[in-house]
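Sanity check

After download, print the first record. It should look like this:
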Amino acid sequence: MDTRDSNVLLPRESGKLIANNSKDVKIHPEGVDKIANHMYECAKKNTYNLQSWRTEHELNPQSQDESALDWVFVADTLNFSFWSDDESQKYRIKFNGKEYTGYWSWCAALNRALKNDVNITNANFYANITEKKLAEILKSDSDTPIPLLEERVAVLREAGKVLLEKYEGKFLNCVKACNKSAQSLLQLVVRDFPSYRDEADYQGKRVSFYKRAQILVADIWACFEGKSYGEFHDIDTITMFADYRIPQALYHFGALSYSEELMKYLKAEKMMQTGDRYEVEIRGCSIWATEMVAEKTRELIEKDSSLKDVLMNSILIDHYLWD
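Expected structure tokens:
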């Protein structure tokens, strides 16, 4: 089932194109090897694996049923823009005796709503949600409200209406339509849910990153540990999720370097616009560098007979670097 615009390069193809033509971001094999060796050690010690998505994060669903699938879809639909220019002015949520910021503050607010019997993961509910109701659900425990409330209302309503109109109100039907193909699900999501389309122009080509759409597929895979609704025969075709955090980790390990011009730009703390060449090159090179890390790590694992059944791909590397 090919549901995408064939003129748009997929994230892996986009990463390769951008890495091969990038002017201000470079990939360094020695840094790639450093991370690969680190991931190999993690594999040997079993310190990070597919189960870590649940065991390391208490806010993620602990069940493996349709309610968990609905949670993942809603969580990833609103998984954008949690950063703050001022560290002291952050959106915060207190839940079960802990305080959360960033993406986890949204997960905490989601779980708080469910605990209070708000049907936030039901498409019938959120297809018509009002700004007032969503503001109430997302009420901050600090003086800083959640950013982009109007956009979140619009995105959530849109997602709910698509599910009601095309999929009988169930995200499960999107998953079932894809016949255990991660790529088919990715393509369905970016076709039918416009907010998930994450594309840019680069050197005359239309490239894609599909950060949230790939996170959605990866979260389903991790939540169900590669079984049931999370069984995908092509999960290794999903790349890392091109955001701001993984490039920092890749830079730290020496897998990426930036030109003097780009470093000056970053140090000036200027806001990059979506689709800027700098942003596209950072995101694209991050994808390709992580693909290189995954390939190198798999080579190391394959040479070690004690790790015969150990799984390694760009998703797990992304999860590890993000954590």
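If your output differs, re-run the checksum step. Summary of this record's structure: The two ends are 34 Å apart (CA to CA).
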